[in-house]
């Protein structure tokens, strides 16, 4: 009886249900007939299929129930399921899975297995459809195991090894099962690995699809290290088979089979035994030779890439060519805190080889637990609500802070007397005594160098032909008779050739108002360095005039990384081609003598230089080793060194072999910077982006666990670039980013002071001395009061404060260029600058880590620590600049004058554009699941105003890259501490890219000093707009600027990419297998897609530079 609105199929289902309820009483033939009708409808009517798959339909369940009643119906039931799932492709399979189809199919497998003997036809059909459905169901492996279907398939396989028709779908299903780790281990125990080796074999035209599937299944099984161990004995067989297919598959019809074999080798060589078996079986030579033969055929690239991955993994690990990884230079701390990094570094027992570990393999019994789909949520987000609230108590008594009053004279100035001093005595500097690290008498940094200023007065160094020398006399007074422009009688210029020749210093006075070569040398004399540098690098001396041409982000040439890696592998294959000649070495007293013309000359013994060693590998190839940060054994990233003695037109390759980060913008179009002295004296004194064939990849130099935070089995990374030089007798410099030395800062500050107009209030104090004996300048910039009337003085004193700092991380030189832009704008004569000075009092610490900058560190100060992780509890002895900067802020908070804005300038090595990190309670809470009532979450959205304004006016700035989520790992950074402890709502880190922009006006261009300085100036203008928007009249209205809703949506979508940096660094032509343990060619299999970075690697990725 059919109700009018009921479809045919629903009616049939109704009948089936009724039969199921009456079960035993009915002739199964009736049920079979009805089911057959259903099947017919499904097979012929799209409408019916849709109906069964629609919401609320219980069709599938009815089919299953029918089956339970009569197992004889299995054939037709299977047909129903197959018809439902197969046609229509992926989307329909998705619906089928979501309606519980997998479970039903698996139950059908179990039911079918109970028939004796099981129907081959049914099993064939079931496995065919399972093979299609399985990959679409994330829980497929687990379901199959719990259900017992795993063993059904395995037994079927074992009993039908010759039945190729049935074998194929079974293998396909097995492959899906194997992607689950627990299943893979269990299948291995059941002998499935051995089974696969029975199916695969040498070149044959028969059964190639079967072979292909077996190889893929085997590959999936071998991802389990337990299974890999079972397969180690088969490594020679796999290599033999691979070579056989390589030789016979001349038309390349079976690339997938060849790839499958390599996939198995790739997984077996994940374990140490596997790598050993590979080397013993001459795997390096076999894969090297086959790959070389594949090179001309582009379609064989996947084979070459996987081969190179395997070879890199198996390449015997080398030690870095160093006696120790501890920095070459050691700075004796007055007090070494027990348990601190320096104590750890220098308390190792004598004789410990810290360069390499014996036990250098991370192959501990691996826990092969089930890895369920991991959420990509960031577990670094702060979830402790108390840490997201302002800290209530001020830990320090006001009495203690009172000494900082002297840095804020503008807050009490009455100008009755001061006017005279300020306006007519521009060089007025008062002695200010503050507690310092070494309790040395403080000096005024612009005065002539004091006697005994440096802890270790430099002895007269030998003259150097390539760099400008300054010598410091015993009494500490500098003398630079050997410096250019007059090289002096003892020097012969390599550039000019003749004795006594006069070097033409490029005249840049007009283009670089803040630069003066003579003044620079003066500044260098009072700079204290641990290595006691006595030379000046030309670029710092001449200055840098930003080029006017555009420097595009480099498009990566296809196959660069592969070529480089093959050249590295050739070192092993053709050891006789390798020179291995040390041409520069700071670890030995006298650097090797370089024979004329055969090798390049290297040098980096000047401020910010940090090359430790150079080894000539081949005629035109050099391995370079960077020095660690002083009192540390790692942090290699920044570099700055000099090269001379080059041949014009020769194709030089440079490899920096001890890089540590797992990826770099050098893989995404960033170039190194080069400065040619010949170009400079021809009127083009400038750093230019240069280098070709640039890439960054994991190399075969093993990293000691001592330097890898206890992690074993880590490798270093190589940054490689190629270069041909254009000038004979040139001296060239290479740097990670535009250098900006401490002496440069001192020079700029002096020149800025000279720019001061009577309307400008500028005071320069020495905040404190650093551990290395350098002074840390503190600037106060505002406008002089218009008059000495009470009103004006009052307005003057009550201007809100803006507190800026930069360069806590020495390797982030871009931060200094942004700061230069800010300072130059602030001191400028434009009406905007004047308004800005009238609006605020600026307190600026332009270089928080002078010692790190001077000594060529990348990240740390002389205490061997990252100063931007010390803000919670800075030590006056170990972190004086942080301690005193924080004290200034604490003083301000104590007198109720906490700054309106705090911003610390940084550089970001992984991302493009300029952007800000800020702190928001609400946005942090929204990112997590902390329960907090909405009233607790009252928060003004004002922290978004400044970045929003910046995104509207500064072309390099990207709002989409900003984040306001507080992370645990950042709780001791300036931004978070100033927000939480000082109560500054607008507390930021401003990050500038080292690479370039991917949006806005500068899209596709690498960043230069012009853009960085512009950013610093735009920051000022943005502050002026902020002032207008937060003035009392507008205070209520500033919300109109903030389309908070859409902004939040935008950032919240981006939030995950802030942390999971691989998002930022994806996709370009060549697959980057920068991590040899992972990262095969792009893989669409959902089960392996997130394996591209091993866990430890992805954690490292979060460790961004802030
Ligand atoms: Zn930084």
Automatic annotation (TrEMBL):
The answer on whether this UniProt entry bears the keyword Membrane reads no
This enzyme catalyses: C-terminal L-alpha-aminoacyl-L-glutamyl-L-glutamyl-[tubulin] + H2O = C-terminal L-alpha-aminoacyl-L-glutamyl-[tubulin] + L-glutamate; (L-glutamyl)(n+1)-gamma-L-glutamyl-L-glutamyl-[protein] + H2O = (L-glutamyl)(n)-gamma-L-glutamyl-L-glutamyl-[protein] + L-glutamate
| A Pfam match | Peptidase_M14
The GO biological-process annotations, alphabetized, read as: proteolysis
Indicate whether Nuclease appears among the record's keywords. no
Q: Which residues form the Peptidase M14 domain?
A: 738-1027
MF terms from GO for this chain are:
metallocarboxypeptidase activity; zinc ion binding
Q: Where is this region: Disordered?
A: 353-380, 1064-1106
Subcellular localization, per the record? Cytoplasm, Cytosol; Nucleus
CDD domains in the record: M14_Nna1
List the GO terms this entry assigns under cellular component, sorted alphabetically.
cytosol; nucleus
Q: Which domain of life is it from?
A: Eukaryota
Q: Chief location of this protein?
A: cytoplasm
Q: Keyword set for this entry? A: Carboxypeptidase, Cytoplasm, Hydrolase, Metal-binding, Metalloprotease, Nucleus, Protease, Zinc
Q: What is its EC number?
A: 3.4.17.24
Please list the residue ranges that the record marks as compositionally biased, kind Basic and acidic residues: 1092-1106
Acidic residues bias located where? 354-372, 1064-1084
Question: Which residues does the Swiss-Prot or TrEMBL record annotate as the active site?
Answer: 991 (proton donor/acceptor)
What this protein needs as a cofactor is: Zn(2+)
- Family per record: Belongs to the peptidase M14 family.
Return the protein name. Answer: Cytosolic carboxypeptidase 1
Organism of origin is Hucho hucho (huchen)
């Amino acid at each position: 009886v059919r109700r009018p609105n009921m479809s045919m199929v629903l009616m049939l289902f109704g009948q089936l249900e009724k039969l199921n309820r009456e079960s035993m009483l009915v002739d199964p033939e009736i049920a079979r007939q009805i089911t057959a009708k259903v099947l017919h409808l499904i097979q012929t009517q799209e409408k019916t299929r849709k109906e069964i798959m629609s919401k609320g339909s219980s069709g599938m369940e009815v089919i299953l129930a029918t089956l339970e009643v009569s197992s004889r119906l299995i054939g037709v039931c299977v047909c129903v399921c197959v018809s439902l799932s197969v046609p229509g492709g992926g989307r329909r399979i998705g619906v089928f899975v979501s309606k519980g189809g997998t479970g039903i199919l698996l139950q059908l497998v179990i039911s079918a297995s109970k028939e004796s003997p099981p129907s081959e036809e049914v099993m064939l059909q079931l496995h065919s459809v399972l093979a299609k459905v399985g990959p679409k169901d994330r829980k497929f492996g687990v379901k199959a195991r719990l259900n017992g279907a795993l063993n059904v398939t395995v037994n079927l396989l074992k009993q039908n090894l010759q039945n190729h028709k049935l074998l194929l779908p079974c293998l396909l299903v097995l492959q899906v099962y194997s992607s689950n780790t627990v299943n893979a281990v269990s299948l291995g125990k059941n002998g499935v690995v051995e089974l696969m080796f029975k199916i695969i074999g040498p070149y044959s035209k028969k059964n190639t699809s079967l072979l292909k599937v077996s190889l893929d299944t085997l590959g999936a099984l071998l991802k389990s290290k337990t299974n890999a161990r079972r397969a180690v004995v088969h490594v020679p067989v796999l290599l033999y088979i691979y070579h056989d297919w390589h030789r016979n598959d001349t038309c390349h019809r079976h690339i997938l089979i060849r790839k499958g074999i390599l996939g198995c080798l790739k997984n077996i060589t994940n374990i140490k035994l596997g790598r050993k078996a590979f080397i013993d079986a001459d795997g390096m030579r076999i894969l090297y030779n086959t790959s070389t033969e594949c090179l001309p055929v582009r379609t064989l690239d996947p084979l070459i890439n996987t081969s190179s991955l395997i070879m890199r993994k198996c390449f015997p690990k080398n030690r870095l060519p160093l006696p120790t990884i501890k920095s070459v230079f050691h700075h004796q701390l007055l007090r070494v805190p027990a348990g601190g990094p320096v104590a750890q570094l220098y308390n190792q027992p004598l004789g410990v080889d810290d360069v390499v570990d014996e036990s250098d393999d991370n192959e501990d019994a691996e826990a092969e637990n089930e890895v369920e789909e991991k959420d990509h949520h960031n577990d670094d987000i702060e979830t402790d609500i108390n840490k997201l609230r302002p800290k209530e108590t001020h830990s320090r008594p006001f009495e203690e802070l009172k000494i900082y009053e002297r840095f804020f004279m503008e807050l009490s100035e009455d100008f009755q007397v001061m006017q005279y001093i300020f306006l007519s005595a521009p060089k007025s500097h008062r002695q200010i005594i503050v507690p310092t690290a070494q309790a040395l008498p403080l000096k005024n940094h612009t005065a002539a160098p004091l006697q005994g200023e440096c802890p270790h007065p430099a002895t007269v160094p030998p003259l150097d032909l390539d760099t400008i020398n300054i010598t410091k006399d015993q009494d500490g007074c500098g003398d630079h008779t050997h410096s250019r422009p007059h090289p002096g009688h003892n020097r012969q210029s390599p550039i000019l050739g003749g004795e006594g020749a006069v070097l033409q210093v490029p005249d840049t006075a007009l283009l670089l108002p803040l630069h003066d070569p003579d003044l620079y040398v003066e500044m260098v004399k009072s700079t204290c360095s641990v290595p006691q540098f006595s030379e000046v690098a030309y670029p710092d001396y001449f200055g840098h005039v930003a080029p006017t041409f555009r420097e595009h982000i480099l498009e990566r040439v296809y196959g660069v990384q592969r070529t480089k890696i093959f050249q590295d592998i050739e070192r092993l294959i053709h050891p006789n081609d390798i020179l291995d000649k040390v041409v520069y070495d700071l670890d030995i007293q006298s650097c090797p003598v370089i024979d004329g013309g055969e090798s390049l000359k290297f040098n980096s013994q000047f401020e910010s230089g940090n090359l430790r060693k150079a080894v000539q590998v081949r005629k035109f190839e050099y391995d370079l080793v960077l020095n660690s940060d002083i009192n540390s054994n790692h942090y290699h990233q920044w570099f700055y060194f000099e090269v001379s003695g080059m041949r014009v037109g020769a194709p030089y390759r440079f490899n920096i072999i001890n890089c540590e980060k797992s990826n770099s913008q050098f893989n995404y179009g960033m170039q190194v910077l080069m400065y040619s002295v010949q170009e400079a004296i021809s009127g083009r004194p400038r750093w230019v982006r240069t280098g070709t064939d640039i890439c960054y990849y994991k190399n075969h130099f093993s990293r000691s666990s001592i330097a890898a935070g206890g992690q074993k089995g880590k490798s270093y990374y190589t940054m490689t670039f190629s270069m041909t030089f254009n000038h004979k007798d040139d001296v060239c410099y290479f740097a990670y980013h535009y250098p900006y030395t401490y002496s440069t800062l001192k020079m700029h500050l002096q020149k800025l002071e000279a720019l001061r107009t009577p309307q400008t209030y500028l005071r320069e104090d020495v905040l404190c001395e650093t551990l290395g004996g350098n002074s840390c300048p503190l600037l106060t910039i505002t406008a002089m009061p218009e008059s000495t009337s009470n009103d004006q003085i009052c307005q003057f004193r009550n201007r809100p404060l803006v507190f800026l700092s930069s360069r806590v991380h020495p390797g982030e030189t871009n931060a200094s260029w942004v700061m230069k832009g800010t300072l130059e704008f602030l001191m400028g004569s434009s009406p905007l600058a004047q308004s800005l000075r009238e609006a605020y009092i600026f307190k600026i610490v332009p270089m928080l880590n002078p010692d790190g900058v001077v000594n060529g560190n990348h990240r740390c100060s002389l205490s061997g620590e990252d100063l931007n992780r010390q803000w919670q509890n800075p030590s006056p002895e170990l972190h004086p600049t942080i301690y005193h900067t924080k004290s200034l802020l604490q003083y301000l908070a104590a007198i109720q004058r906490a700054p309106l804005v705090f911003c610390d300038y940084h550089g970001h090595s992984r991302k493009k554009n300029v952007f800000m990190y800020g702190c928001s309670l609400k946005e942090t809470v929204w990112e997590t699941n902390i329960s907090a009532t909405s009233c607790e979450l009252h928060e003004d959205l004002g922290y978004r105003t400044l970045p929003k304004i910046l995104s509207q006016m500064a072309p390099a700035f990207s709002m989409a890259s900003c984040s306001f989520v507080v992370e645990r790992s950042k709780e001791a950074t300036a931004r978070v501490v100033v927000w939480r402890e000082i109560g500054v709502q607008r507390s930021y880190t401003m990050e500038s890219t080292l690479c370039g922009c991917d949006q806005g006006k500068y899209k596709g261009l690498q960043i230069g000093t012009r853009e960085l300085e512009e950013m610093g100036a735009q920051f000022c203008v943005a502050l002026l707009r902020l002032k207008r928007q937060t003035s009392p009249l507008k205070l209520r209205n500033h919300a109109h600027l903030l389309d908070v809703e859409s902004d939040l949506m935008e950032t919240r979508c981006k939030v995950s990419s802030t942390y999971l940096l691989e998002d930022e660094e994806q996709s370009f032509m060549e697959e980057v297998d920068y991590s040899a343990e992972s990262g095969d060619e792009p893989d669409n299999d959902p089960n392996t897609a997130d394996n591209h970075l091993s866990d430890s690697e992805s954690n490292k990725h979060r460790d961004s530079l802030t």
